[in-house]
Design brief:
The protein has helices spanning 18-31, 37-44, 48-54, 67-74. With 79 residues, the protein is mostly helical.
């Protein structure tokens, strides 16, 4: 999937790139419970440790997983 967003050239956005916005979107979807940790890591192609380091950059707690996400992590083949 490709997503194109046009933003104004204003100073607060000058140093932000597509990679930053991808990480921010995936971290937010994880925080909202729309993605499991495993799904988020697979999309970003990063390790669990890298993902744990990423979350605080967007002011999300590392230990905020829901019971459903934990269940999915333990049994990914069960829907």
């Amino acid at each position: 999937m490709e997503l194109i967003i046009e933003l104004p050239d204003i100073k607060p956005l000058v140093n932000l790139d597509g990679d930053y916005f991808k990480k921010m979107l995936i971290a937010n979807l994880y925080h909202l419970g729309r993605l499991s940790e495993k799904e988020a890591r697979e999309i970003l192609e990063i390790s669990r440790r890298q993902f744990e380091d990423l979350l605080p950059q967007f002011e999300f707690a590392i230990l905020g997983d829901s019971p459903d996400n934990i269940k999915f992590e333990l049994n990914p083949d069960v829907s």
